[in-house]
Amino acid sequence: MQLRAVSLAVFASVLLASCSQSPTGRSQLMLMSPQQLDKMGEQSYQQMQQELEINTDEQTNAYVQCVSDELIDTLPEPYRSADWEITVFADDAANAFALPGNNIGVYNGLLDVAENQHQLAAVIGHEIAHVIAQHSNERVSSNMMVGLGMQMGAVLAETQLDDSTAALAMAALGVGAQVGVLLPYSRAHESEADKLGLRYMAAAGFEPAEAAQLWRNMAANSEGQAPPEFLSTHPHPGSRIDAINNYLPELQVASRSPNCQP
How far apart are CA 29 and CA 43, in angstroms? Predict the structure, then answer.
């Protein structure tokens, strides 16, 4: 009876998500409401603002704000009209993020790796794309589905297998779920965010070709630290650069000329 109930829950979840699509037309699993994700994003953002030192340098903040504003001005609604909050964190990590609830964070270390406004726009556009494509919702939903699958596997193992075989089966299921479902999903998100971010860059008048150089810089900055592509949540820098260069001919850069000065 328990296994049947879990199976019905899985089936109902799949039906609920069957008509969801990303901005690029990819099928998506969506089990949470945008309001729920916005609340989670706001809570995470406020926690980071409390725990991390914030860079208060006016020139640095104006530069990051300028690049962000140029990108936001090209976004589809309701994101274009949303009240985005942007924070520069005094942290040496070469990183940035955007969260549901229209929040953007940029770390000091990224400003050392991104050599100009175009490269900074590549990262911020990429992070905004994660929000617009609702990758957080998809990620959380995928984890929920994997959890349900683990419950089903546990019930099956308990009812039909001996103890030692059941333990091996559950261990294999856990590894299979991580490598076969969750990580590839993340790589798909990263590649999709790259493509959408390039669109936003081009629409704002930034040079999309600079995105490839940015990732070369990132690769050099993290040399020797990246895991194998098969077990990474991000595409290998070489694969990423190739995909960006292959997509560039499809883009038309707008005539507007951003002038954000670091």
Answer: 23
- DSSP labels for 54-107? BP--HHHHHHHHHHHHHHHTTSPTTTTTS--EEEEE---SS-EEEETTTEEEEE
Residues 97/39, Cβ–Cβ less than 8 Å: no
3-state secondary structure of 2: helix
Alpha-carbon torsion 194, 145, 180, 177, what sign?
positive
CA within 13 Å, CB half, 177? 18
Residue type, 85: E
Nearest to 105 by CA among 122, 127, 126: 127
Cα–chain center distance at 147:
21
d(CA 75, CA 14): 30
Q: How many CA atoms lie within 13 A of 188 on its CB side?
A: 19
**pLDDT, tens digit, 9 for 90 and up, residues 104-152:** 999 999 999 999 999 999 999 999 999 998 887 777 776 666 555 555 4
**By the 8 A CB rule, do 52 and 105 touch?**
no
List Cα–Cα distances, 110 to 62, 113, 124, 125, 221, in angstroms.
Answer: 15, 5, 10, 14, 10
Tell me the Ramachandran region of residue 259: left when phi exceeds 0, alpha when psi lies from -120 to 50, beta otherwise: beta
**pLDDT tens-place string over residues 169-187:** 445 444 444 444 445 557 7
- Count CB-CB contacts under 10 A for residue 41: 19
Q: Report the C-alpha gap between 84 and 131 in whole angstroms.
A: 12
Question: Alpha-carbon dihedral of residues 26, 250, 217, 114, nearest 10 degrees?
Answer: -90
Question: What would you report as the CA-atom Rg of the chain, rounded to the nearest whole angstrom?
Answer: 21
